[in-house]
């Protein structure tokens, strides 16, 4: 159990970002806008191709549910990773890192706080998109029940460790490398087989993809939506990989912070 002081410091950092987000309508709109737009567009695209392919209503419903579930869950991963990286960049843009770390705040506490911030940002974006899918397509992602929570948390964990690794690169390279926060997850998407089964990929891409928890999550999603079968093996594999990568991500970011503090570059970082 964390000491009360640690919990208070984590809450203080989270509260700072909560106020930044909750009191900025443009920030809230941007977070909610893209997941909802992607959900609407992908839904109509899937309906278009299914109708032109002569699919019956049952097949259309399965295809639509599979695609919309993949779109929403992938956005959870992306928003979690970006939310964590942006939480660091906002401190840099505000030149606030020095103020944070002359306080008793420890790097591990700051990591915990920004992981919670990124989770909140992901939920703010995902929930409106999931609710809009009901009147648009008659599809509710919440009908998946308990497996949805397992899919969700595995992708949140992957977003977290990706965010930690990307933040470590930003600490070392400076805010000039902020494009890494946006492009890294998209570069992994083809390997993770988000919208298709892995067997369409070249063999070497399939082998690389097996190392990413997201591939196993989306395989589990397709098994559930297309065959009505929940396969725990996919979730356990994803969870085990996430534990390993989370430890690596935390260790790498901790090393990057300590190195930056020793060399004084943490206080010099800015726009």
Structural notes for this entry:
This protein is mostly helical and about 270 residues long. The protein has one domain. The longest helix has about 35 residues. The protein is globular.
Q: What does the secondary structure layout of this molecule look like, with pairings?
A:
Blueprint: H1 4-22, H2 25-52, H3 57-93, H4 97-101, H5 107-137, H6 146-173, H7 180-192, H8 203-209, H9 213-227, H10 232-263, H11 265-268
Helix pairs in contact: 1-5, 2-3, 2-5, 3-5, 3-6, 3-7, 3-9, 6-7, 6-9, 6-10, 7-8, 9-10
Summed up, the helix count is 11
Ranges where pLDDT stays below 50 over 5 or more residues in a row are: none
Residue share in helices?
A: over 70%
- Mean of the pLDDT scores? 85
Global morphology:
globular
Order of helices and strands: HHHHHHHHHHH
- Terminal residue distance: 38 Å
Work out the strand percent. under 5%
How many DSSP-defined strands? Answer: 0
Main beta sheet, described? none
């Amino acid at each position: 159990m964390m000491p009360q002081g640690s919990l208070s410091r984590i809450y203080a950092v989270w509260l700072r970002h909560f106020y930044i987000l909750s009191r900025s309508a443009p920030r809230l709109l941007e977070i909610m806008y893209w997941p909802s737009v992607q959900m609407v567009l992908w839904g109509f695209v899937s309906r278009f191709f299914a109708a032109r392919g002569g699919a019956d209503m049952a097949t259309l419903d399965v295809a639509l549910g599979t695609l919309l579930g993949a779109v929403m869950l992938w956005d959870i991963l992306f928003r979690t990773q970006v939310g964590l990286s942006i939480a660091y960049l906002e401190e840099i843009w505000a030149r606030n890192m020095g103020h944070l770390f002359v306080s008793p705040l420890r790097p591990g506490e700051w990591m915990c706080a920004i992981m919670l911030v990124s989770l909140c940002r992901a939920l703010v974006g995902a929930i409106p998109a999931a609710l809009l899918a009901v009147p648009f397509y008659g599809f509710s992602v919440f009908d998946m029940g308990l497996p949805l929570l397992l899919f969700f948390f595995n992708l949140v964990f992957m977003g977290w460790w990706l965010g930690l690794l990307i933040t470590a690169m930003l600490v070392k390279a400076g805010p000039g490398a902020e494009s890494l926060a946006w492009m890294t997850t998209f570069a992994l998407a083809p390997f993770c087989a988000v919208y298709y089964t892995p067997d369409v990929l070249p063999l070497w891409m399939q082998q690389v993809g097996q190392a990413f928890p997201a591939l196993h999550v989306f395989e589990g999603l397709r098994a559930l939506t297309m065959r009505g079968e929940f396969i725990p093996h996919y979730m356990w594999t994803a969870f085990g990989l996430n534990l390993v990568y989370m430890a690596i991500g935390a260790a790498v970011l901790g090393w990057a912070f300590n190195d930056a503090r020793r060399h004084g570059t943490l206080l010099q970082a800015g726009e």
